[in-house]
Design brief:
Number of domains: 1
Number of strands: 8
Largest sheet: 5 strands, mixed
CATH architecture: Sandwich
Low-confidence stretches: 16-23, 134-149, 151-159
Radius of gyration: 22 Å
Number of helices: 4
Distance between the termini: 12 Å
CATH superfamily: Cupredoxins -  blue copper proteins
CATH class: Mainly Beta
Strand content: 15-25%
Helix content: 25-40%
Strand order of the largest sheet: 2-8-7-4-5
Order of helices and strands: HEHEEEHEEEEH
Mean pLDDT: 80
Shape: globular
Length: about 160
């Protein structure tokens, strides 16, 4: 009798673990929020202020909303960022919207290579942390929920079979 209760408890835990996976929260950042990735009227202030309100971590994504053929997004070195040097970018995505996964910690620099867009302020500098150690935002509350649910089921199973 006791062994069948233990087998049932193990089965319940296994099913719950598979059905409700626990994951690390990753954030999708829409660059410029509703403004998108465009030439601004205030130079790079729009993107500097936007980045200051964000926390970036490895595994997060940047979504650059722009119209293909009018803008692009290129990752460049720090040396190329200041003077808006468009030759030899680290990467370049000409198709909007572009989604970039942040795969390394450290400073990352993005510019638009169309015309004078970068020199007019269409550029973004961010610092990416090695891991996201902050509490998930409400947009990521499903991740918190999925971590709590298996523990709740485990407690219920233990109470039921005890």
């Amino acid at each position: 009798m006791a062994s069948s209760k233990i087998m049932m408890m193990v089965a319940v835990i296994a099913i719950v673990s598979v059905c409700v996976p626990s994951t690390v929260a990753q954030t999708s950042h829409t660059v410029g929020d509703t403004f998108g990735w465009n030439v601004t009227n205030d130079g790079s202030v729009t993107y500097t202020n936007w980045a200051a309100r964000q926390t970036f971590a490895v595994g997060d994504t940047l979504v650059f909303n722009f119209t293909t053929g009018f803008h692009d997004v290129a990752e460049v070195s720090q040396a190329a960022f200041g003077p808006c040097t468009i030759t030899n970018p680290i990467s370049n995505d000409p198709n909007g919207p572009a989604t970039i996964t942040l795969s390394t910690a450290g400073n990352h620099y993005y510019i638009c290579t169309f015309g004078r867009h970068c020199s007019l302020g269409q550029k973004l500098s961010i610092t990416v942390a090695a891991s996201n150690s902050t509490t998930p935002s409400p947009a990521n509350s499903a991740s918190s929920f999925s971590a709590v649910v298996p523990i709740t089921f485990l407690a219920a199973a233990l109470a039921f079979f005890h």
